[in-house]
Amino acid sequence: MRLVSYNIQYGRGRDGRFDLDRIAAEVAGADLIAMQEVERYWARSGLVDQPAELARRLADYYWVYGAGVDVHAPAAVPGAEAGTCRRQFGNLLLARTPILAARNHLLPKCSSIGPMSLQRSALEGIVETEVGMLRVYSLHLTHLSAETRLPQVEMLLRVHRDAPWEGAALAAGDAKAEWLREPAPPAPGPYAVLMGDFNAEPDSREYARIVGPLSEYGGRIINPEGFVDAWVQAGHAEQDGVTADIHGRPVRIDYCFVSTALRERVRGARIDDQARGSDHQPLWIDIDL
Questions:
Q1: Average pLDDT, the chain
Q2: Is 151 exposed, middle or buried (0-12, 13-18, 19+ CB in 10 A)?
Q3: What would the CATH number be for the domain defined by 2-287?
Q4: pTM of the prediction?
């Protein structure tokens, strides 16, 4: 199974051009696609419904969208009546197989009278694989600071830990017949993949909270119920790889973290440094599921 994570910067490439055709071509061929910074009805990107437009270009995929920012859209949206559209900014998941259930988790947020503060989110989708139900997350953490990202990381870990306890979106043994006419959504299993723009580098506190602290005896102290960095599991060094830049400095801030139980199934990882559709580079992961 091929997974790809891509912060598409609402379709604007390094050349300043908005081109969803280019974005779609750069992720074509994946089995699971996680995109961040996908928006609906913003003037800067042409007042278009980007999730729908990307889904139209990737017609062989099932998809779900989850907004972090969700505000009133102006009546200037072409062909739309006032009040019928929402201006949204969030994450997209696409899969070759049905996304059997989905949830959108709004992450902790701090207000700011200084740097811009956005509502961030983590979009969860459940797909069926040969090893069982897999929870896949397309997520985007805040750019502001480690202090504002750490509560978001804690929530992600809590969502992962509590998923089996919370059960399916519809979980009731004595549901009325009208609820049982359609197939019930699946119960979430223990396997999960976190993909997205974490806005944190491998030497950060946020990274260590996800994959465990470094030991002076070598390697990470990894919680059996936690996650491993698929890039590292595939044989790369933590400090290697570039997915974006911060103030002109090349960094790796886009990741795919897999449940520790899936670590031996990771077969490869690469960063597409030829992609030009965004200010980030797509991260590809091969995993045997």
A1: 94
A2: middle
A3: 3.60.10.10
A4: 0.95
